[in-house]
Amino acid sequence: MKAFLSAVAAIVDKDLRTELRTKEIVTSLLVFVLLVLFIFNFAFEPRAETIALVAPGVLWVAFVFAGMLGLNRSFVMEHDRGCMEGLMLCPVDRSAIYLGKMVGNLAFMLVVEVIAFPFFSIFFNLPLLLPGAYLMALLGTLGFAGVGTLFSAMSVNTKAREILLPLLLFPIVVPVLIAGVKATAIVVGDTSGGSIWPWVRLVAAFDAIFLIISSLTFEFAIEQ
Amino acid sequence: MGNLTYLFMAYTIIWVVLFVYIAGLYRAQRQLRRDIDALKDLSRAREEDKPRIQVGSRRFPSS
Amino acid sequence: MGKAATLTDKLLGASTLVVMGVTLYLIFMWVPMDAEQKDAQRIFYFHVPMAWVAFLAFFGVFVGSVVYLWKRDVAWDRFAYCSGEIGVVFTFLVLMTGSIWAKPIWGAWWTWDPRLTTTAMLLMIYISYLLIRAYAAQDAQAARFGAVVGIVGFVDVPIVYMSIRWWRTMHPAPVIGGGPDSGLDVTMLATLLVSVLAFTLFYLLLLRQRMAIKKMEHELEGMRYELEMEDAEKWAI
Fold first, then answer.
1. B28 touches chain C (CB under 8 A)
2. Collapsing DSSP states into helix, strand and coil, what is residue C111?
3. What is the pLDDT, as a whole number, of residue B59?
4. CA atoms within 13 A of residue A100's CA, in its CB half-sphere
5. Which chains have 3 or more CB–CB distances shorter than 8 Å to chain B?
6. Considering chain A, what percentage of its residues have pLDDT values greater than 70?
7. Is chain A touching chain B, with at least 3 CB–CB pairs below 8 Å?
């Protein structure tokens, strides 16, 4: 168990170190998220009374699209420089590689989200602190990165590469998207909603199920 | 009876789609059979040719 | 299956034809007209069995995927793939007929009702299943990737359904008139069951044919490979 965890930690460390040197992924994802927030503002022109309806959708679309870009980078990098073979030669369980990559992806997305949230509040005139929405973003991103890491490892090996990942991932993460949007809407004051807890539980269940399935099937996704 | 039009539409679409799918399968099957037969002929012809194609004869085609 | 169709194929084909004929007779001649929905209700007798076949087919993808990853037998992968393809065809038909049925009854081609929306997502998931297989670099990879998507996709379906149901019920409910399940009488139920049988047979027939084609493709690849190897050997001397 200890060896397993240290293998996971080593892979996370590798990805974080690479990212700290280039700051490639986090910077581009952040700019992308802010751009999406702007563009949707132009597209929907939300007014005071429609903000609670529009803002959560905009936020989650921004997160999901940005996450997609980050996931694509994650394995393209390994693949193009032949690092995947190196990883596969490691005498560790394949699920350790999966968890390592997944935690790395999750970390990048969370950093972007932490920076993006205040901007979201400012642009849409919402309270600066939205704890419920943070919890939802954390759980939702975990599920998204969980399935996304698995699919990204596969799609990078196909002929279509980057195009295939959104096609595979979007239909699968529909529950996360719905739950995220609804819970955020409740937090920012959509009165028809009710409690956020059913949504939190739904996404938590999604996370648990797909983290298990993904770590079990990951070896088939990277096998040569 | 406007409803009858919808019924007609639904059934037409079902049969058209299924027909197109089955026709596609049929064509694929026919094409495959043709390819397999061609390959079989080719390999049979080669079997018959085998004694003639020898190292020597290929190296000195004029002799 | 060689050149001539085997006895099983012939029997299956014949029984599908007979049962499908009986189904058509029951739907159009025998079963009484629905009092409210009139003729449009007859779509139901094809719509529901096709939905059943689609579900059966995707369950087949799931089973085929799991067994393939476990035993690595190409036959199971072939089963999963062919089942998935047929499932996509039937899911598409379910959506089309559902939409046509909804127009006169609910007054709109499309409502964001949980079952409808989940079915649309189901179609998307399995189209992406076919796509990743089409874009994979080689057959073994297509089989592995397909199996992973087949498993993840199938497990996802109930979660998608649940999330969409909650999403909708927390909103003003869409106007849905008395569903087909309300007060189904005996003749209607009988017609439905015969139709389910007909479509299940039809699915098995299509599946066997599709798998035979897939197998032929595989054999053809093998023959090509062998001939190429022969060539390579000859020129290597």
1. yes
2. coil
3. 46
4. 23
5. C
6. 98
7. no
Its ipTM equals 0.87
| Widest Cα–Cα separation across chain C | 82
Q: What digits encode the pLDDT tens for the residues C3-39? A: 456 888 888 888 888 888 888 888 887 877 776 677 7
Query: Chains with ≥3 Cβ pairs under 8 A against A?
Result: C
Q: Give chain B's length.
A: 63
Domain ranges of chain A: 2-222
> Cα distance from C170 to chain A (closest Cα, Å)?
6
Of C127, C131, C148, which has the smallest distance from its Cβ to A217's Cβ?
C148
Cβ proximity of C129 and C153 under 8 Å: yes
Read off the amino acid at residue C17.
L
Q: What is the mean pLDDT of chain C?
A: 84
Beta-ladder partners of A6: none
Per-residue tokens: A96 = 């350790």
Contact C220 B25 (CB under 8 A): no
Task: Check CB contact of B42 with chain C, cutoff 8 Å.
Answer: yes
Q: Give the Cα separation of C224 and C67 in Å (integer).
A: 29
Q: What is the pLDDT of residues C135-147, one digit of tens each?
A: 988 888 899 999 9
In chain B, whose CA is at the least distance from the CA of C47?
B10
Which of C103, C217, C223 shows the shortest C-beta gap to B6? C103
Q: Where are the domains of chain B?
A: 1-42
User: C73 and C67 in contact (C-beta within 8 Å)?
Assistant: yes
Residues in contact with C11: Cβ distance below 8 Å, sequence separation at least 6, in sequence order: none
Of A147, A143, A145, A117, give the one whose Cα is nearest residue A130: A117
Q: Which of C3, C40, C93 is opposite residue B7, by nearest beta carbon?
A: C40
Q: Which residues of chain B have a CB within 8 Å of the CB of C37?
A: 3
User: In 3D, which of C87, C78, C60, C90 has the Cα closest to residue C211?
Assistant: C78
Buried-state track A52-71, b at ≥16 Cβ within 10 A, e below 16? bebbbbbbbbbbbbbbbbbb
**Helix intervals (H) in chain A:** 2-22, 24-44, 51-80, 83-89, 94-123, 131-155, 164-172, 174-187, 197-222
- B in contact with C (at least 3 C-beta pairs within 8 A): yes
